[in-house]
Amino acid sequence: MVTLACEGLAVTLGGRIVLDAASAAFAPGGLVGVVGPNGAGKSTLVRALAGLLPVARGRATLDGRDVAAIPRAEMARRIAYLPQGQTLHWPLSVARLVALGRLPHLAPFQRIGAGDAAAIDRAMALTEVTDLRDRVATELSGGERARVLLARALAVEAPVLIVDEPLAALDPGHQLDMMALLRARAGEGALVIAVLHDLGLAARQCDRLLLLHAGRVVADGAPADVLTAERLAAIFGIRAWTGMVEGQPILVPLHRSS
């Protein structure tokens, strides 16, 4: 069983501490949401967990090994990472773009095999972009591009999937589809971590939330225990309505708290 953890993690960017003393452990079987206001350190945390940022103090580990000591090729096979707001510069077809997710499994100059092709097809089917396979990726809408880039991450078929703001540019229907897909991936045994801004979807869809504020982890637990009225007011500066609809927890931001 794959495990990902950080202990006393601190990251400095531009001479400023943007993540400080973060500690958490993650295991497969549930969808973990990382929430917090703008500038809280959410993207910095997940990038550090994926070994993509140098650490000032503490450490991040994958199965007990320091991520900084794990070869990049191995990390690319074990952690699929979808950053936020990617811009496409090369006019690749959708199929070729998604196929880039198989590169960590290929030796230099090795051609894509039948197993790779099957993984690509599965990823495109899951994200409902199969009908876009021959389109030029740079000509897609923002929502289509978001789904194609997720397909590229899914094509890795890594045991860990980290997605940063995967709902940006998606319409409400595709947002629900995206969350269902992430939940299903976790249900299949993957470790799934998602940075989210939509507190309503986070409260309803995630099994666990990690709340960051000013570079620190201030709460970690079940959504109802993390997103309390007091924290919503103190950290997000909002008041919200909370309740149950069709057996699901609902959180609707109403207005700024006084």
From TrEMBL:
GO molecular-function term, one example from the UniProt record: ATP binding
Statement: the UniProt record of this protein carries the keyword Repeat: no
Q: Does the keyword GTP-binding apply?
A: no
Where do the ABC transporter domain residues begin and end?
A: 4-239
Q: What does the UniProt keyword field contain? A: ATP-binding, Nucleotide-binding, Translocase, Transport
Kindly give the InterPro entries that the UniProt entry links to this protein. AAA+_ATPase, ABC_transporter-like_ATP-bd, ABC_transporter-like_CS
Q: What does this protein do?
A: Part of the ABC transporter complex HmuTUV involved in hemin import. Responsible for energy coupling to the transport system.
- State what protein this is by name: ABC transporter ATP-binding protein
